[in-house]
Amino acid sequence: MEIWLKPIVDAIGSVLSGYPLVVALLGAGLYFTVRFGGIRVRTLWHSLCLLRTSGSTTGISPFQAFATGLASRVGTGNIAGVAVALTIGGPGAIFWMWMTALLGMASAFVESTLAQIFKIPRHDNTFRGGPAYYIQLGLGSRKFGIVFALALLFTFGFALNSVQSHSIAEALEASFGWERQWIGVALVLMTAPIIYGGVRRVAWFAQWVVPVMAVIYLGLATYVCLVHIDQIPGMIAMIWRHAFGLEPATGGIAGYAVTQAVLMGVKRGLFSNEAGMGSAPNAAAVATTKHPVQQGLMQMLGVFFDTIVVCSATAFMILLSGQLMPGAAPEGAVLTQRALAVHFGDWAIIFTGVTVFFLAYSSVLGNYAYAEVNMDYMTQRPWMLNIFRALVLLAVMLGSVASLPLVWSFADVGTALMAFINLVAIGLLMNYALIAWRDYQAQRKAGIAEPIFTRDVLPQKMRERLPKDVWRAERGDNG
């Protein structure tokens, strides 16, 4: 099946996730950066301070929403995705991942702020929102909202879950020699009870252990960088040269290398940090906060941590290991495992396999949660939700045994499709995020430590579209 399927997926992907995606992501990020006055630099310290806020005593706090979004971002894209970017795009791909993140931070701020403005209340003192909701409420188009919801269902329900299960199967096969089809069966059996509303302890355990594994992983990367501190300047210079084709080569080869570096850097950067893709706003909207900008600033930090910190950690360990072979076949988590084995010995292969398992498995659960929110937006018929759940499990199984290029091709198509739809939406709605940003700034300049957002700062037509239980007109108790 892969023989005829992959060319079709690649043909679609060449249109969606080629240079049009590069221009859209970097262009939107640059535009939002200018319109919001370099917000990532101006608010960095303030954004860090916001992490200490506890939020409301009811519902979900801003920090919890930030942690939820970060848990979705930090996953196999930081381990397997970086390795794929390096093997296909070369060291220069890392530079373009950085650019995607630095510019994408502004896009992340806009989409998460909009998700807060246009959220809807739930009966359990929580909120629900995201691109489908701000498209319907802000643009007045439920049909356009459904189009985005369908794109997210395909991407997070099927494509990205296939990538996650493939990364798990690849890592565990390398670590323990287990056969992939049986790993796939085990993943289905572990996932089914959770997405059908059963065993909650497994999900709780995954949420608890993932931060621990991530901290250990970053600790290992820090150690590697300290041991090879004398090689860091040369490595950074090499990344820069490869990013712009400054390595000695003939014009055609250099041009192709730069093309691959840019494309892979942007694709893998988008997959990893999700800035502008419209996924994190689903988590940002659930927070009970006093001002939409607060959540926008915190989600912006998540992009920085994901790519500039965690992805760089993986890239540095691979580049300092000498395991990256130019022209070799595309590799994912296995390359990262070999790199760690060079630095720490064979036990690191097992550690990386276990880390990939927990990161990827928690991402499967998180991906499904995003998908269910959008399934609920489209329809609340139980039988349709059950059919969707069965298809998610099928995607997990197929991803375990499929080839690496095929699962990444599906992921590229899905993420690009979501990004285009979301970027159009937030571009059209940007002025409302700008209104909220200026209101936030004005209150802070007036000496208000915790600015409060009210719907009266919005135009009349938009105030009428918002649910009555969200963003009251008076300064005081707010949603």
Description:
The structure is a single chain. By secondary structure, this protein is mainly alpha-helical. The chain has one domain: Amino acid/polyamine transporter I (Up-down Bundle). The chain is 75% helix and 1% strand. The protein has helices at 2-16, 19-35, 39-42, 44-50, 62-73, 80-89, 92-117, 131-139, 142-176, 180-195, 201-227, 232-243, 251-273, 280-284, 292-319, 333-344, 347-378, 382-401, 404-445, 460-465; strands at 120-121, 127-128. It has a two-stranded antiparallel ribbon with strand order 1-2. A hairpin with a 5-residue loop joins strand 1 (120-121) and strand 2 (127-128). Helix 8 (131-139) packs across helix 19. The radius of gyration is 22 Å and the shape is globular.
